[in-house]
Design a protein that fits this description.
The structure is a homodimer of 153-residue chains. Chain A has six helices and three strands. Chain A is mostly helical and 153 residues long. Chain A has a three-stranded antiparallel β-sheet. In chain A, a hairpin with a 7-residue loop joins strand 2 and strand 3. In chain A, helix 1 packs antiparallel against helix 5 and helix 2 packs across helix 3. The longest helix of chain A is centred in the N-terminal third of the chain and has 29 residues. The relative contact order of chain A is 0.11. Chain A binds a DNA duplex (30 and 30 nucleotides) through helix 4.
DNA sequence: GCCGTTTAGTTGAGCGTTCAACCATCGCGG
DNA sequence: CCGCGATGGTTGAACGCTCAACTAAACGGC
């Protein structure tokens, strides 16, 4: 099948490389800050956030994985670590004996509450402060479109 | 210091979460495709690309790290693996005895050439096909602004 | 009520990244 | 030309992620 590759034109090249550089730099920076200030990677922070927003501060493993955009395996390993840190506790699910429920402990909530201001400040400094309100709006639309496109295709 | 945290307003929240979901999904997808089709993670692919674009297909380790947006340590480990795969070779630097030069081998170039069409197709499908030309332009400006902001601050 | 098929979740090995410690060399001030 | 800080690069341990294999329980059809 001699299908010709549709290579990226110079503008697309430039866009793609800028996007790569920016997103890598942004996530690396936030990850490093969070690791330094709160002793956890961003992925773990997000798990705690999702749990904290839920009534009872608890979620089935699968739902938590979905919410955090994580694979089951990843979440399983992560919760094991969070449990060892005393930030999350596992409970049996009353309605499904296969199920496990991850519960945010008080200590976990306190850790999250302590970490949040610094992290939010970082997001603001590194992302929102650099962009105009119009650009923020554009970024929202673009991201929502992409997220939608990636989950359905 | 009772400095009030400037929390994200609902629009910013939404933007930030959409951005996180989209960029995570995009990179995860491309990484998985590249791993499946070319047997290497995206970070390694990018190292090969940078080398391939250079006269003589070679670069000092530090320059390569810079170009690929990588730490020195990361690059060192990565090149070790790429060397084991036969895709890169290390040479002494004639002008600086501390220096090492990473050289893309013919085999490495061939592997890259074989992987490129599929990867480009992936970038197109998952990113550019989902966005309008206007949005692509917006994304470029936003990314360039962010990259600039992140490297100078 | 039984059997095959999903679904929930875990596990361990292998890999890539980070961080800090480290060695070697360079280049500059005195 | 000596000493010392800066630079280039590597190393090993700890950690997080991926993938595939696995167990256990729920579901669906007959």
């Amino acid at each position: 099948m001699a299908v010709m590759t549709r290579w990226l034109d110079p503008d697309e090249q430039r866009t793609w490389r800028a996007y790569l550089a920016a997103s890598r730099a942004l996530m690396d920076t936030l990850d490093r800050e969070l690791q330094r200030d709160a002793g956890m990677p961003h992925a773990y922070y997000e798990i705690l956030v999702r749990l904290s927003e839920t009534p009872g501060r608890q979620l089935r493993m699968s739902d938590l994985a979905q919410a955090a955009g994580s694979s089951r395996s990843r979440l399983s390993h992560a919760v094991a670590r969070l449990e060892a840190a005393g930030w999350v506790r596992r409970e049996e699910c009353p309605t499904d004996r296969r199920g496990q429920i991850a519960v945010l402990t008080d200590e976990g909530f306190a850790t999250l509450a302590a970490a949040a201001p610094g992290h939010v400040e970082g997001v603001r400094r590194h992302l929102f402060d650099a962009l105009s309100p119009t650009q923020v709006d554009q970024l929202r639309r673009i991201s929502e479109t992409l997220a939608e496109h990636l989950t359905t295709s």
